[in-house]
Design the sequence.
């Protein structure tokens, strides 16, 4: 029932109120359910801990072996589907750029499709925090700001004074 009704309802509510909305809607009934469950749970009784022999005695039950076999087959088929299709995240090799002031920059990137265009992509380049490439980018950013430069329409130009 939760999958059939809850997922579409949660998606609709998420579109109306943002992605946090469905979580807040579920928080109130969950808090109420926790209070009711806490009210009716019997007081903790002191019992002896079961022995290891008693725990393994469960394995004599045929129903347990049927459940374990079914779960093994199910998980095996899921693993087979996972391996058969390329569902792993793609991590493209870093690109190398040469800058005359700082030398080679090895940057990772993430291409993203644009909704309105099948042919165009938005690409974000990044350096791993703490790496020497990250330090080079920080240095270039500081130099860019000190020189009073700004990027307009894809071209580097001098920042206009506000007089």
Sequence:
């Amino acid at each position: 029932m939760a999958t059939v009704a809850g997922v579409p309802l949660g998606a609709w509510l998420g579109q109306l109120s943002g992605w946090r909305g469905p979580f807040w809607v579920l928080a109130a009934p969950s808090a109420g359910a926790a209070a009711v469950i806490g009210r009716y749970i019997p007081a903790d009784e002191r019992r002896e801990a079961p022995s290891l022999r008693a725990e393994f005695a469960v394995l004599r039950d045929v129903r347990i072996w049927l459940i374990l076999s079914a779960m093994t087959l199910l998980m095996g088929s899921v693993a087979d589907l996972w391996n058969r299709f390329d569902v792993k995240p793609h991590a493209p090799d870093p690109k190398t750029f040469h800058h005359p002031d700082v030398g080679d920059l090895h940057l990772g990137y993430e291409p993203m499709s644009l909704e309105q265009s099948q042919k165009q992509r938005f690409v974000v380049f990044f350096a791993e925090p703490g790496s020497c490439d990250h330090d080079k980018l920080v240095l270039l950013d500081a130099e860019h700001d000190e020189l009073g430069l700004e990027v307009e329409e894809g071209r580097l130009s001098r920042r206009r004074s506000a007089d």
